[in-house]
Amino acid sequence: MKKIHLPLNKKTIKSLKVGERVLLSGRLLTARDAAHKRLVDALKNGKRLPISIKGEAIYYTGPTPAKGKEVIGSCGPTTSSRMDPFTPVLLRHGLIAMIGKGERSKEATASIKKHGAVYFVTIGGAGVYLSERVKKNKIVAYSDLETEAIRELIVEDFPAVVSII
Predict the structure, then answer these.
(1) Which among 83, 51, 77 is positioned nearest to 151, based on CA atoms?
(2) Which among 122, 115, 75 is positioned nearest to 95, based on CA atoms?
(3) Rounded to whole angstroms, how far apart are CA atoms 106 and 69?
(4) How far, in Å, are 2, 25, 39, 40, 157 from residue 8 at the CA level?
(5) Do residues 29 and 57 lie in contact, with contact meaning Cβ atoms separated by under 8 Å?
(6) Do 71 and 131 form a contact (C-beta atoms < 8 A)?
(7) Residue 8 CB: number of other CB atoms within 10 A?
(8) Second label for 41, Cα 20 to 30 Å away, from 51, 68, 87, 162?
(9) How crowded is the C-beta side of 16, counted as CA atoms within 13 Å?
């Protein structure tokens, strides 16, 4: 498996091949439907985002609360197509990578390719396994969304497969 450090750059993305298995290490943001809607609404209304998405990767997950000494609870991927209506706008504003599960719409796929971004898929149903790859976890925006708040994760050897480039 190819090891990749986050955040990504265009040179690294150009070196990837569809179907290639990778291990991601570094910083990821998390966001699901409600957070995506807020981000896009803010951009459409000319407001500043609460976090920078330029050059960032967003993992589509809503982790369960951590128990005991856990860094994070179970954090499996959510269905990526639910973020498709928001994807083109976020890519236009600098988002470079997304991680989730499932297929993307034609519009989202075209936008990913147009912007030289990448979509990775990861293992559905393996939230506990994936949570063990998370070394740090903190809420960075929209804390009122609780499990769907935007988080900054530091991951180590987080498994994924290149799906769209």
Answers:
(1) 51
(2) 115
(3) 42
(4) 14, 10, 21, 22, 14
(5) yes
(6) yes
(7) 19
(8) 162
(9) 31
* Distance separating alpha carbons of residues 46 and 69, to the nearest angstrom: 41
Q: Which two tokens stand for residue 154?
A: 């530091």
**Per the structure block, which two tokens stand in for 125?**
């149903």
Cα→Cα distances 92→97, 114, 137, 150, Å: 12, 10, 27, 19
Measure CA of the first residue to CA of the last residue in the chain; give whole Å.
18
pTM, two decimal places: 0.97
Name the one residue in this structure whose structure tokens are 């954090």. Answer: 75
Q: How far apart are alpha carbons 52 and 11 in whole angstroms? A: 21
Residue 116 in contact with residue 92, Cβ under 8 Å?
Answer: no
Separation in Å, CA 38 to CA 43, 142, 156: 9, 9, 29
Tens place of pLDDT per residue across the chain (165 aa): 999 999 999 999 999 999 999 999 999 999 999 999 999 999 999 999 999 999 999 999 999 999 999 999 999 999 999 999 999 999 999 999 999 999 999 999 999 999 999 999 999 999 999 999 999 999 999 999 999 999 999 999 999 999 999
**C-alpha 87, offset from chain centre:** 11
Query: Cα separation of 107 and 80, whole Å?
Result: 13
Domains present along the chain, CATH in parentheses = 2-164 (3.20.130.10)
